[in-house]
Design a protein that fits this description.
With about 280 residues, this protein is an alpha/beta fold. It is built from eleven helices and nine strands. The two termini are about 35 Å apart. This is Sulfurtransferase.
Length: about 280
């Protein structure tokens, strides 16, 4: 990873509004749902004026394959081309949002921050924007192309399945499963080959990072949340979910809480559960 971004991972709507007006800042939006019910048309139904659309499945992931999971990280050159096509070039600051709890746009923000790009998630997403009096646009943006230099995904920000296996349940390390409790326990599995979780992992569901108002908990509350789940001050931290998307919500929450150096297991449960050689645990 390049030098850490100065911008915090999550910003409120007032800061978003102020930053949005500055030169060199690009607003990007994600619309995505596991069942495919959201896409570019959802974005065009109403978005922040001047923002660009980023497709999670096509732009923020490579093609699915069992050995890499449902949403592998894209090739650095492909990701750079995607960013350039929507007007995000070297030196740009990116503010991202979605129309839900941030768990889709967090993937874009984490990817950019992992590459050292100044990027932040709008707390509360599109709802926060409209609640603050922000207008919506239905225009289809046509941004000027930019040049984004490809940067590799490094070992400082990602972890392999072997590293997950070695870290889970080991003193000084913690592996976090960001999925819903019932999926962690193996009571249900709607999409991946086997139900359960990585043996030794702990469950910190991403949905608990936000309060009833749809906003992220404050840093102290988030820190207490992760600490009570078993995350230590100096632990090596690896996070996974179903396919490497909502895990990034936990990763941004960890950073907001002051934990540093946490890594993503990109293939997540979709990769782990497809490998019959990997053990699976169920229950708490």
């Amino acid at each position: 990873m390049d030098s850490a971004p100065a911008l915090p991972p999550v910003i409120d709507v007032d800061r978003f509004r102020a930053l949005r007006a500055q030169p060199g800042v690009r607003v990007a939006e994600v619309r995505w749902a596991l069942d495919g019910s959201k896409d570019r048309s959802t974005f065009l139904a109403g978005h922040v004026p001047g923002s660009v659309y980023v497709d999670l499945g096509a732009d923020l992931a490579a093609a699915a394959k069992p050995e890499a999971g449902r949403h592998p990280l894209p090739d650095p050159a492909d990701f750079a081309a995607t960013l350039g096509a929507v007007g995000i070039g070297d030196g740009a600051t990116v503010l991202a949002l979605d129309d839900t709890d941030g768990s889709q746009a967090s993937r874009l923000v984490w990817m950019l921050r992992a590459l050292g790009v100044e990027a932040a998630l709008l707390d509360g997403g599109l709802g926060a924007w409209t609640a603050a009096g922000g207008e919506l646009s239905t225009e289809d943006p046509a941004p000027d192309a930019a040049v984004f230099t490809p940067r590799p995904w490094g070992t400082a920000v990602t972890a392999t399945a072997d590293e997950v296996e070695a870290a889970a349940g080991t003193e000084g390390s913690v592996v976090i499963d960001a999925r819903a409790p019932e999926r962690f326990r193996g009571e249900t599995e709607p999409v991946d080959p086997r139900a359960g979780h990585v043996p030794g992992a702990i469950n910190v569901p991403f949905a608990g990072n936000v309060g009833a108002d749809g906003r992220f908990l404050d840093p102290r509350a988030l820190r207490e949340r992760f600490a009570s789940a078993g995350v230590g001050e100096t632990d090596e931290i690896i996070v996974y979910c179903g396919s490497g998307v909502t895990a990034t919500h936990d990763l941004l929450a960890l950073e907001r809480a002051g934990f540093t150096g946490a890594r993503l297991f990109p293939g997540s449960w979709s990769q782990w559960s497809a490998d019959e050689g990997r053990e699976v645990a169920t229950g708490e």
